[in-house]
Write a structure and sequence with these properties.
With about 300 residues, the protein is an alpha+beta fold. The chain is built from 7 helices and 16 strands. The strands form 2 sheets. An 8-stranded mixed sheet has the order 2-3-4-1-5-8-7-6, with helices on one face. Strands 10-11-12-9-13-16-15-14 form an 8-stranded mixed sheet, sandwiched between helices. The two termini are about 30 Å apart.
């Protein structure tokens, strides 16, 4: 797959994880996914930021937790925008909260941090020299960003107003965020995209998918509204085993779910993520298997 060097507004474009001990997290993720890391902060900087690369391409990053912020390990989702400042205005108008006002990140870009009306945190990225993840959907790289929410209808109103997202319902109770026109953008580099999706039985409109929606039910009180993510892997069972050897906790053991075999993992410092292998034969699995993943 060619290197990614551009996104369009409204598409998740980057992920990083804040960790109490970033060096330990670097060791974990390099051991699990084979990422190679480079410290990119200038000498004397108050925080640490390690850029992770896969095959020389930016894939994700590990950072220290800023002073004054709870020392909780977590993964953050960044959405590409044309203007972080204009997006902040739309977030306020739609009932969200601006956690960090838009600010410049050296010459890399401009970002901001928000909460949706339910409290799920997400970031936006207005790119300059840094163009987001250079590799996605390959083993060891980001595959999906997912919103866990108790108010699906409210989330649709909010993210529709902020990013122009719509939704697509799939068989088995699965629901996806879509961005009209995203498939056209992808086909500029991948002219066979729609043909390939049709061969796998993908529904009409799947080429516009940018993320997924998980509805938190009343019998899942342990779950909070949040943004999560899934990494693509060659073997979910092998990754779960390796993660456990490296000190992680297996939240949901590998299981078959719609389109994938998937596991949910908490890294040694508590940041949770999923790892999945695409399995076309699992397309017809129902919502029960998907709910088992989300219950973790």
């Amino acid at each position: 797959m060619p290197e990614r060097d551009r996104y369009i507004a409204g598409v998740p474009c980057w992920i990083d994880t804040s960790q109490p001990d970033p060096e330990a997290a670097v060791d974990f993720y390099s051991g699990l996914f084979g990422w190679e890391f480079e410290s990119v902060m200038p000498p004397g900087a108050p925080g640490k930021y390690f850029m992770g690369r896969l095959g020389g391409r930016d894939v994700a990053a590990v950072s220290s937790i800023p002073e004054g912020v709870p020392a909780t390990a977590m993964w953050d989702t960044y959405v590409w925008v044309d203007s972080a400042d204009e997006t902040a205005s739309r977030v306020r108008d739609a009932g969200g909260t601006v956690v960090k006002e838009p600010f410049d990140v050296m010459d890399s870009g401009r970002m901001a941090v928000f909460k949706d009306p339910e409290g799920a945190v997400f970031c936006v990225w207005q790119a300059r020299s840094f163009r987001g993840a250079g590799v996605v959907n390959e083993p060891g790289s980001l595959n999906f960003n997912t919103l866990d929410t108790r108010d699906v209808d409210g989330a649709k109103r909010f993210y529709g107003a902020v990013f122009g997202w719509e939704s697509l319902e799939l068989d088995g109770g699965v629901e996806m965020w879509t961005l009209p026109g995203y498939g056209d953008h992808l086909e500029q580099d991948d002219p066979e995209l729609r043909k390939r999706l049709a061969e796998f039985g993908g529904p009409t409109g799947f080429e516009d998918v940018v993320a997924s929606i998980n509805s938190i039910t009343d019998d899942q009180p342990q779950l909070a509204p949040q943004w999560g993510l899934t990494f693509s892997v060659e073997d979910a069972d092998a990754v779960a085993k390796k993660a456990e050897e490296l000190g992680a906790t297996i939240v949901v053991p590998p299981l078959d779910a719609p389109w994938v075999r998937i596991t949910v993992i908490a890294d040694p410092q508590g940041a949770t993520f999923a790892a999945s292998k695409f399995v076309a034969e699992n397309a017809g699995l129902g919502a029960q298997a998907d709910a088992a993943v989300r219950a973790g």
